[in-house]
């Protein structure tokens, strides 16, 4: 057994098997339902895979319009490829890109940890992998399809590429770093500012430690510019109110109706700093991101993160002062910039939330692992071994409690909504109901995902999640009295709609929905289609 525990291939296999179970088990069921961004991304990806345009009829937009305020493209592109490859779209497929980028985060995070800590602690890569697997944030973020969460994984791959390029000094390694940098920009718009500042300061650092070679910089800059220029063009189009551009009929540089440049600001920097630290180290207000019961990385991680961050900062300062390169500088710099940019996200009193801060989480995990090793290095002999065992036991206990809560105890009923597919099929199967106005209590994208019409069948709203798709209406105002006695009202089971019943409508439970029928319909004559 001792031999196996020294075998890096065996340890890597252990991490992979644990990853596959934690991230793929019941992925189509937990968390329950689908997030509104998941269904929007899923329908867009299905349209792109089958019709070459998204729901707004834009061919392969580099920054999709989504609900009017824009969305990062990387998630949709990966999902489009999976749909084209499998010929289907379902909850498992929708969430698979999140799991894949979780694997990227764990794998490249472990490799980067080995570069930063491996000389003194050869198994630091394995410790980082275990830390990733046991902490709540990484599991929760990788189990639902929120587009911006891919930044954590892609930026970690980019950091490893930078660390590797600086160590090896080869043009091809710098070119790979440039490719990774360009792709990172397509995961989340927040990365634009982080990346620009990082590249500027990294150049200054490389010059300081005498590793700056212009041929290497050009090797990185060329692929970065080639990949990133469409996103730059989108910013120019939207900042200067220019018309939308379609390149070669295949790629769209879109106008975004509700362009979100105004989300950045420093109206209350102290509050934003507090929120940024709270969302990173503790929890936010969104149940899909984090939980007050376990925090993002457990309360026990906070002192380790702080100790590790100080240790990495000391190494970074020493490298700059002595002009001796230390690869710890790069993840430290990225984490600091992710925190600084997070402070500028001041759209409301609770921002930035945890998913907006997702670009910091590898640096936080590396800091925690560094902090654990730093504490252990202060100790000797049996005291060190006892402390290591105590830390391992504490994380194992926390992990056991978290996974029991996540997979067994946690209520999924109200986390996300599920498409009301059975209710739609029921209405369409009955001539007495088909063609009537149907008011549904969900965003219009849930209907589109449930029925998968051609994007040319309906003109969806440019802005917002409400609107009409033929005789199906998705407006909150429809559920305010007085009610149309000829219309059908469809709500999820969690929706308190007793007032509709009191207005004379007949409630029928169909699948996960309650269908309120007009009083003149004889419910006993209706056909109930077989479940799909």
Task: Explain what you see.
By secondary structure, the chain is mainly α. Helix content is 54%, strand content 6%. It has helices at residues 2-6, 8-24, 36-51, 74-86, 91-117, 124-134, 136-141, 150-168, 171-184, 191-208, 214-239, 269-281, 301-322, 329-343, 361-377, 381-409, 421-428, 444-451, 498-502, and strands at 245-247, 251-253, 438-440, 467-469, 472-474, 488-492, 506-510, 513-517. It has a six-stranded mixed β-sheet. The protein has a two-stranded antiparallel ribbon with strand order 1-2. A hairpin with a 2-residue loop joins strand 4 and strand 5.
Topology of helices and strands:
Blueprint: H1 2-6, H2 8-24, H3 36-51, H4 74-86, H5 91-117, H6 124-134, H7 136-141, H8 150-168, H9 171-184, H10 191-208, H11 214-239, E1 245-247, E2 251-253, H12 269-281, H13 301-322, H14 329-343, H15 361-377, H16 381-409, H17 421-428, E3 438-440, H18 444-451, E4 467-469, E5 472-474, E6 488-492, H19 498-502, E7 506-510, E8 513-517
Parallel strand pairs: 3-5, 3-6
Antiparallel strand pairs: 1-2, 4-5, 6-8, 7-8
Helix pairs in contact: 2-5, 2-6, 3-4, 3-18, 4-5, 5-6, 5-8, 6-15, 8-9, 9-11, 10-14, 12-14, 13-15, 14-15
């Amino acid at each position: 057994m001792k031999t196996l525990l020294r075998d890096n291939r065996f340890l890597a296999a252990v991490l992979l098997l644990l990853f596959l179970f934690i991230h793929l088990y019941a992925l189509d069921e937990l968390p329950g339902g689908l997030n509104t961004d998941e269904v929007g991304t899923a329908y867009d990806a299905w349209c792109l895979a089958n019709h070459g345009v998204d729901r707004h009829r834009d061919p392969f937009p580099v920054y999709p319009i989504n609900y009017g305020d824009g969305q990062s493209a990387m998630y949709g592109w990966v999902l489009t490829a999976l749909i084209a490859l499998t010929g289907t779209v379902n909850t498992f497929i929708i969430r698979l890109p999140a799991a894949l980028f979780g694997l990227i985060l764990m794998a490249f995070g472990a490799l980067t940890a080995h570069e930063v800590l491996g000389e003194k602690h050869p198994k630091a890569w394995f410790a980082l992998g275990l830390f990733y697997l046991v902490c709540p944030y990484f599991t929760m973020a990788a189990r639902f399809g929120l587009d911006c969460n891919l930044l954590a994984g892609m930026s970690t791959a980019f950091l490893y590429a930078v660390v590797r390029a600086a160590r090896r000094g080869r043009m091809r390694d710098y070119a790979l770093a440039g490719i990774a940098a360009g792709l990172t920009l397509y995961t989340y718009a927040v990365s634009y500012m982080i990346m620009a500042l990082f590249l500027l300061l990294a150049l200054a650092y490389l010059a300081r430690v005498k590793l700056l070679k212009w041929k290497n910089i050009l090797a990185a800059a060329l692929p970065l510019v080639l990949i990133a220029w469409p996103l730059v063009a989108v910013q120019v189009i939207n900042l200067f109110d220019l018309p939308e551009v379609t390149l070669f009929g295949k790629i769209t540089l879109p106008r975004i109706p509700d362009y979100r440049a105004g989300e950045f600001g420093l109206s209350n920097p102290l509050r934003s700093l507090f929120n940024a630290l709270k969302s990173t180290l503790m929890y936010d207000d969104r149940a899909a991101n984090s939980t007050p019961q376990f925090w993002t990385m457990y309360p026990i991680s906070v002192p380790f993160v702080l100790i590790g961050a100080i240790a990495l900062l000391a190494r970074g300062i020493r490298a700059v002062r002595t002009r001796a390169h230390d690869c710890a500088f790069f993840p430290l710099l990225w984490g600091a910039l992710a925190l600084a940019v997070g402070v500028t996200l001041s759209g409301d009193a609770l921002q930035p939330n945890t998913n907006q801060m997702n670009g910091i989480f590898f640096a936080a995990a590396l800091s925690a692992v560094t902090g654990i090793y730093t504490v252990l290095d202060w100790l000797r002999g049996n005291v060190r071994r006892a402390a290591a065992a105590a830390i391992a036991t504490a994380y194992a206990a926390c992990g056991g409690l978290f996974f029991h809560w996540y997979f067994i105890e946690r209520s999924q009923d109200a986390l996300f909504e599920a498409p009301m597919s059975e209710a739609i099929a029921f209405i369409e199967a009955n001539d007495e109901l088909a063609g009537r106005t149907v008011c549904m209590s969900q965003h219009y994208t849930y209907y589109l995902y449930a029925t998968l019409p051609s994007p040319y069948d309906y003109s969806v709203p440019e802005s917002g999640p409400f609107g009409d798709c033929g005789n199906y209406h998705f407006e909150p105002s429809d559920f305010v009295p007085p009610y149309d006695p000829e219309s059908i009202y469809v709500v999820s089971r969690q929706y308190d709609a007793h007032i509709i019943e009191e207005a004379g409508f007949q409630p029928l439970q169909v699948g996960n929905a309650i269908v309120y029928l007009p009083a003149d319909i004889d419910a006993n004559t209706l056909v109930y289609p077989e479940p799909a």
